[in-house]
Structures are given as structure tokens and as C-alpha cells.
């Protein structure tokens, strides 16, 4: 990473962090055992702490060693490390656990030895959307298939690649295609140029495990063939297809949830398989703009004579911007427009200049030109085009065009609606997937037949293993000193925290409408629960529990911080209206350095014993305690973890929302700070360029402006030093979990981030290169596992049992 990379890392906090869910889902693992990098001739920079074994305790009666970091190493230049890192082959298959059979939503794909040719496609002028690309290619093939294309069917990816089962009768050819009607007719030049042949021999070798390199171009060609038909018939969103024929459901405020399916061709140990899963996404309802406005603004009946408030107008402007509409006031003719905004003045006041220099209102124009009397003249008008040449469209003559996906953030009502629309029991989801495959009838598709592709209609059976749950250790003073989870669940009945935290200085701020007496009773009951299950919690708040206005959250938090010096914990009851959690956390955790526990007022009002226990468990971890530990960790019986000092990392990059090109991406890295328990974590964050997936601040170098000496820094280095300071061990093994990386980014992330890890280690001690296991965690895959027999070997919901592992059949060939 460049030394100039800007970073805004959060200050170290005493708060600990549980291992994120992202680190627990070990699907799609990519493991790299990094060989030691070449020895660097450059030791660490002056003033930088090095990792050394801790000093041995002094003999009896002698002086005790100081509990601080070891002496710094001599000055050094930036370390050098090799970037020759490649994903390793599979070392073997797991054997632990009870074997069972599950079904996976993978459908085996057969392919014949066809001459598959790849052609590059160039379109001039370049169309604005893939939809226009497909319209052009459809027009081209319908006109020229029998002649210039030699009667061959083509598979087109909607962009720059076209595939045929056999050679076209040319190496390169230009086609002229016209779209639209005069005077808006546009002529495009489409150039098709031979690029390469797909190598099915290498694909066969790869699928049988005889070669390591994936022939991605060949897999891509077959994938495009299977996607051609749905791409022409359904709305395409990335790798998913949606249509109203699969069903839709209203989710509120002008939106509906469309049902569809995800499809991807995957290389597996069984051969090629087509991964099919049910998918849903929100779309704008194809309704009149007036009806959309009423739903969006929660108006029962729109009053033609009542103007919109500025607040409602701005809300509607934001909701409508970018939507395509068509006009309905001309019988037999519909024109399409893209909304760029809405006017700040009502329709009745809106006028425009005529060619003779006079002015005419939009209301007059519609009556004079179309004999259409506009009713909602007090409402604003839709605007299309640009500010210099605006096109005014009255809302009442516009309808939203069907098939437009909603890409913004859903509100709480819509999230609830889409969850209700998509939630299915495993048995029902399996049936839905099978119905989708039956409906698509891949093997009957003419294009698939021409390319020699055949898709089975049955899910594959897969060998799985159910791992035994780990034994959890609790405090010896409790009734239950250890616990074995049952179907992934356990509780605190008869148990005490293995290491209870100590809270002496705390208080509570109430931003809700709950009465202060009820809040005080709640806090008292929470303190009792904390003490009952193992914490040491002062029953008296350091300052009085107070209520504060939700309009002055930041001021109230700062006042509480100033009033209670050295505050260990601030309990915050959030306002009744949602949306304030982020602000509270931002002020507490980053501005003031306060550990906070936020609570929803409705939960506080209905709090029961289980709720108090759950909150107490959260609080204990935040103030430095441990709730439980793995018994095998304490007895040093976890292979490759407890035999040698091992540090676990977790890393992810959060990107700004779609359409936001100014906000930075935020890289976050957590690392375990204890061993062998591995229950406490420290987090560091860093801002970087928008949509940059590579973590820039993992390791950085620079120059001290005063001394002119090299300076080493970065998140990896900081966390390694913290681990050493906490445990007095330098990690002998690094296990690095990386979330949010697509398959196309594997090589890039592995190259740069593995290099940063090596350099961070070498900057601390020149010969320090511990082995690294780099695990890419993929949560958003679409593989779904179902029990072989529904109702057996499942949890209460019908899902497969927690701890089920699949590492054969549907996994990567190598």
C-alpha cells in the first residue's frame, strides 16, 4: 500500500468484540499456507516495537521484569517479500463428524464436444444500456442469421462477447442496424470479430482434477449459452432473472417484491453443475404517478386543490428521481421519459415560452393541444430533460413503466414486507426451486441443444458430516460448570460467566417516552442480573439516571461524559422513532470513547428474565469480561490452534450505497487478543477510496519528516503488536478470515493482502514470517442444502442441523 494512503483509524478501545458471524460461516474457503518470505536485509525502523519472546521470570528474591514491550530493534528500510502466492491444492477431505446425505440445489450439466467459437462484439456509437445491446443483437440475428451468420444460433452476453457452435462464415464483419423511428432514429455499426476457440479438453481435465488452472473462458461460454433465453424473456439483475409470471407481492410505499431465480454454472467435483436458487428483489409498481405519490406520502385521498408541503415535495422528488414513466393522455400513443426532478412551483403557475415570444401555462397547453383538462393544478409537475431544456409532465398523465428495479434503501415497512414475501420453509423452498427448473426446461432450449448442453432436472445428493458441538466452559461457582449446545442453542440457566467484568462507574440516558421511574427499575433489575450471573456491578449509578430530548442526542451524551468522569458504561434507551442508533454509536465510540449499550424502548418496557440475561452477556463482553470459553481451548486440545500461539484476524470492506461516489469505503480488521481462549478481539478501521476492495492500510511505509528514517505502520502491524503486548507471545501462526471478496478478485486480494501481511511481520522482526492461512469467506453464495428426508435430521424449522459440513461433490474440483 502506498505511504500516502489516507487513514482515519479509530483509537484503540478497551471494548472487546465477539467473533463476527462472517468469520463463523466457513463456506467457500480459500486456504493459503504462505511459505516464508526471503530474509530481508533490513530490520525494523527505529522506535518500532519488535516481536520478541517474553523475558523469563527472575529467580526467587530477584527483581521482576517490567511488563512492557521489548526494546525496539535497530533502524531498517521497508521489508521486501515475494508476491508469488497461489491458492493451494486441496490437501484432503475432512473425516470428523457423523456422516449423512443431504440434497443440494445443484443440477448436473452435460456437454458435447462442440466447436465453440468466441467472437468480440463492438458497437458504435456505444449504447447506454445492455438492454439496447440486446435489442440490437436480436435485430441483427433476425435479419442476417440465414445469410451472413450461416444459419447458426448465437449466444450473446449483452456486452462484448458472442458465442457460436461452429465457425461463422467470416473472420470479421460490420453490420448496420437502425433503431427507433424518424426523427429519433439511430444507426449503429455492429462489428463481429473472431477472437478464440473454447477448449473443452482443458475443461474436462480441470473437472477431473488433472489440472489446476480453471479454463474460465470456456465455462463463461457455456454459462452465456444457458443465460441467453432467460435474458431475452425476463428482467435481468446480475446473475438473477425476475418476472411477474413467477409472482409478485406488494411491500408498501409504491413498491412490490418480484420473485425470480438465481442461476450460475459452477465447476464441481461431480462435473459442471447449474446452481439454481429462488431470489426476490423490489420493483416499482407499474401504477400511475398519482397513486405512487399517495402511497409514498401516505395520503388516503389526494386533494386536487391542496398543494404539497415542502417536506412532502422533497420526499416525492427523491422517490421519483430516475424512474422511467410513460404518458397516457394521447389515445394510441405513449411516450417514455426519465424523471430528473419535480418543479418547485405548482402546475397552475408553471409556464414556458412559445416561438412567438409569448408565455403559455402547462394547463393551457394541455387543454389547447389535447383538450385534456388537468385536475391536480395545485400539485408540482414532473420534470424530464435538463434545466436548460426542461420537459414538463403533469403527474396525472404519467404511469410508471413496468420492470424497474428499486435500488435504494428500503424503509422498515418495506423490509418487513419483503421478509414476509420471501420467508419459506426448507421443504417449500426446495419445491419452488424444482418448479423453476421444470418451468425453464433447459434441455429443450434450442440454443442449448445446438451447443450440445444437457441439464438434469434433479438435485444432487451430497455426502455431508455433522460435526459434534464443542463443550462450553463456565465458572466453577455455577451449578453447571460446562455445557454442550443442543441443535446450536444453549442458555444461562444454572451457569455463571467464566470471567465476569467489573463495572463501578455507569449511568443511563433515556431518550424515549418511557417514564423515568420505569427506566430506573429496569436498570436496577439489569444490575441484579449482571451480579447474579458473575459480574461485579455497582448498583448505584455514578450520576443520576436522566431523560433527555431526542432532538439533542449529541449534547446529552457529551454532558453525561463530562458529568461522570472515567465512565465505564453508558446505557442508552433509544428514542421511540428508529434511525438514531448510528448517531449514538458514532458519538459514544468514536468521539467520546465511551462503551455504550443501546436498548429499544419497547424491549425495555416488556423486559423479561431472558432479555436481562441477553443484555448482561453483551455488557460483560464490552467491559472486558468473558462469557464462556471453549473447554478444548483451555485444555489445549484444538489442533492447529492451541498447540502454538495463534492469532485470528477478520477483515472486510464496507462500500458506500449505490449512486454514492463521494463517501469513502471503510476497511475494518479485527484480531484476537488472547490465547489459547481466543474470545477477545480488538478492532481497527480505516477510510480509503470509494469502492476500493483491496485494504490499503493493512501495511504502510513512510518517512519520518524530522529524522528522515523509515516509518512502518498499518492495521496488521498494530494488531500484531497489541497481541504481543496482551499475551507476551508473538503469534506462531496467523489465520486470516477475509469477507466480501468475489471469485474474480481472489488473485488480486491474495497477491496484495498476503504481501502486506508478510511485510507487516518482517517489519517487526526481520526473520519473523509465521505461516498464514488465508480464508476467503463467502456468505452470499446460493448453495442451499436440504435434508434427504424432510422431518428427519433437522431442527424445528426443517433446516439441516447446525455444524453440517460439505467438502465433497459440489465443491471446487481442485
TrEMBL record:
Residues covered by the PAZ domain: 288-402
Biased composition (Low complexity): 1-22, 34-50, 57-70, 78-87
CDD domains to which the protein is assigned, alphabetical: PAZ_argonaute_like
Superkingdom as given in the UniProt entry: Eukaryota
Name of the protein in its database record: Piwi domain-containing protein
Annotated ranges, domain Piwi: 569-814
A family per Pfam: PAZ
Keyword Cell membrane: no
Biological process terms in GO annotation: regulatory ncRNA-mediated gene silencing
InterPro entries found in the cross-reference section: ArgoL1, ArgoL2, Argonaute_Mid_dom, Argonaute_N, PAZ_dom, PAZ_dom_sf, Piwi, RNaseH-like_sf
Signal peptide (residue range): none
Keywords (A to Z) from UniProt: RNA-mediated gene silencing
Region Disordered, annotated ranges: 1-92
GO molecular function, one term: RNA binding
SUPFAM superfamilies attached to this UniProt entry: PAZ domain, Ribonuclease H-like
Annotated source species: Aegilops tauschii subsp. strangulata
Family: Belongs to the argonaute family. Ago subfamily.
Amino acid at each position: 500500500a502506498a505511504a500516502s494512503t489516507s487513514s482515519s483509524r479509530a483509537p484503540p478501545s478497551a471494548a472487546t468484540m465477539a467473533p463476527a458471524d462472517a468469520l463463523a460461516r466457513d463456506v467457500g474457503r480459500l486456504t493459503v499456507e504462505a511459505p516464508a518470505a526471503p530474509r530481508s536485509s533490513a530490520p525494523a525502523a527505529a522506535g518500532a516495537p519488535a516481536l520478541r519472546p517474553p523475558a523469563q521470570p527472575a529467580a526467587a528474591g530477584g527483581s521482576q521484569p517490567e511488563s512492557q514491550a521489548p526494546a525496539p530493534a535497530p533502524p531498517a528500510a521497508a521489508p521486501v517479500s515475494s508476491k508469488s502466492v497461489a491458492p493451494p491444492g486441496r490437501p484432503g477431505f475432512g473425516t470428523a463428524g457423523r456422516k449423512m446425505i443431504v440434497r443440494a440445489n445443484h443440477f448436473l450439466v452435460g456437454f458435447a464436444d462442440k466447436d465453440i467459437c468466441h467472437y468480440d462484439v463492438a458497437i458504435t456509437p456505444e449504447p447506454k444500456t445492455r438492454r439496447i445491446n440486446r435489442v440490437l443483437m436480436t435485430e441483427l440475428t433476425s435479419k442476417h442469421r440465414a445469410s451472413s451468420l450461416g444459419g447458426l444460433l448465437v449466444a450473446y452476453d449483452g456486452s462484448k462477447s458472442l458465442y457460436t457452435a461452429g465457425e461463422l462464415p467470416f473472420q470479421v464483419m460490420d453490420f448496420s442496424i437502425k433503431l427507433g423511428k424518424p426523427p429519433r432514429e439511430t444507426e449503429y455499426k455492429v462489428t463481429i470479430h473472431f477472437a478464440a476457440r473454447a477448449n473443452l479438453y482443458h475443461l474436462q481435465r480441470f473437472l477431473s482434477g488433472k489440472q489446476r488452472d480453471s479454463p474460465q473462458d470456456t465455462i463463461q461460454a457455456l454459462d452465456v449459452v444457458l443465460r441467453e433465453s432467460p435474458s431475452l424473456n425476463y428482467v435481468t439483475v446480475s446473475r438473477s432473472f425476475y418476472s411477474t409470471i413467477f409472482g409478485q407481492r406488494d411491500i408498501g410505499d409504491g413498491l412490490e417484491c418480484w420473485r425470480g431465480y438465481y442461476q450460475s454454472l459452477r465447476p464441481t467435483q461431480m462435473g459442471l453443475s447449474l446452481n439454481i436458487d429462488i431470489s426476490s428483489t423490489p420493483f416499482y409498481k407499474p401504477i400511475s404517478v398519482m397513486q405512487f405519490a399517495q402511497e409514498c406520502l401516505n395520503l388516503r385521498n389526494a386533494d386536487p386543490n391542496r398543494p404539497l408541503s415542502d417536506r412532502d415535495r422533497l420526499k416525492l422528488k427523491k422517490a421519483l428521481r430516475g424512474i422511467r414513466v410513460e404518458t397516457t393522455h394521447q389515445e394510441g400513443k405513449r411516450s417514455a421519459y426519465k424523471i430528473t426532478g419535480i418543479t418547485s412551483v405548482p402546475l397552475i403557475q408553471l409556464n414556458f415560452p412559445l416561438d412567438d415570444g409569448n408565455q403559455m401555462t402547462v394547463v393551457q397547453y394541455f387543454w389547447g393541444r389535447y383538450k385534456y383538462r388537468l385536475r391536480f393544478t395545485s400539485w408540482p409537475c414532473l420534470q424530464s430533460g435538463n434545466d436548460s431544456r426542461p420537459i414538463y409532465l403533469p403527474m396525472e398523465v404519467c404511469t410508471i413503466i413496468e420492470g424497474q428495479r428499486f435500488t435504494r434503501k428500503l424503509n422498515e415497512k418495506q423490509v418487513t414486507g419483503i421478509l414476509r414475501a420471501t420467508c419459506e420453509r426448507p421443504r417449500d423452498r426446495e419445491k419452488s426451486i424444482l418448479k423453476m427448473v421444470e418451468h425453464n426446461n433447459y434441455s429443450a432450449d434450442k440454443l442449448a441443444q445446438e451447443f450440445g448442453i444437457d441439464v438434469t432436472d434433479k438435485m444432487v445428493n451430497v455426502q455431508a458430516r455433522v460435526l459434534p458441538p464443542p463443550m462450553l466452559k463456565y465458572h466453577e461457582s455455577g451449578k453447571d460448570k460446562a455445557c454442550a449446545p443442543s441443535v446450536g442453542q444453549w442458555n444461562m440457566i444454572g451457569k455463571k460467566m467464566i470471567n465476569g467484568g467489573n463495572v463501578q462507574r455507569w449511568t443511563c440516558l433515556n431518550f424515549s417516552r418511557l417514564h423515568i421511574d420505569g427506566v430506573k427499575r429496569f436498570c436496577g433489575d439489569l444490575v441484579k442480573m449482571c451480579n447474579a450471573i458473575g459480574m461485579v456491578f455497582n448498583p448505584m449509578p455514578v450520576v443520576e439516571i436522566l431523560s433527555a430530548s431526542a432532538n439533542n442526542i449529541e449534547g446529552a451524551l457529551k454532558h453525561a461524559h463530562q458529568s461522570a468522569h472515567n465512565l465505564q458504561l453508558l446505557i442508552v434507551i433509544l428514542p421511540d422513532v428508529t434511525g438514531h442508533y448510528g448517531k449514538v454509536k458514532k458519538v459514544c465510540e468514536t468521539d467520546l470513547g465511551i462503551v455504550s449499550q443501546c436498548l429499544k424502548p419497547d424491549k425495555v418496557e416488556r423486559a423479561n428474565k431472558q432479555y436481562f440475561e441477553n443484555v448482561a452477556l453483551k455488557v460483560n463482553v464490552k467491559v472486558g469480561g468473558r462469557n464462556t470459553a471453549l473447554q478444548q481451548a483451555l485444555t489445549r486440545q484444538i489442533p492447529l490452534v492451541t498447540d502454538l500461539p495463534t492469532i485470528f484476524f477478520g477483515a472486510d470492506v464496507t462500500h458506500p450505497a449505490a449512486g454514492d461516489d463521494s463517501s469513502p469505503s471503510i476497511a475494518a480488521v479485527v484480531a484476537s487478543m488472547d490465547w489459547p481462549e481466543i474470545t477477545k478481539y480488538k478492532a481497527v478501521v480505516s477510510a480509503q477510496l470509494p469502492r476500493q476492495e483491496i485494504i490499503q492500510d493493512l501495511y504502510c511505509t513512510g518517512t519520518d519528516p524530522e529524522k528522515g528514517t523509515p516509518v512502518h505502520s498499518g492495521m496488521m502491524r498494530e494488531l500484531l503488536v497489541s497481541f504481543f503486548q496482551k499475551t507476551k507471545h508473538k503469534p506462531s501462526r496467523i489465520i486470516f478470515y477475509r469477507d466480501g471478496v468475489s471469485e474474480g478478485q481472489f488473485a488480486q486480494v491474495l497477491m496484495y493482502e498476503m504481501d502486506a501481511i508478510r511485510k507487516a511481520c518482517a517489519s517487526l522482526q526481520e526473520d519473523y514470517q509465521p505461516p498464514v492461512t488465508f480464508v476467503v469467506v463467502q456468505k452470499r453464495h446460493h448453495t442451499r442444502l436440504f435434508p434427504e428426508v424432510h422431518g428427519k435430521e433437522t431442527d424445528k424449522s426443517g433446516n439441516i442441523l447446525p455444524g453440517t459440513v460439505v467438502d465433497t461433490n459440489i465443491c471446487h474440483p481442485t
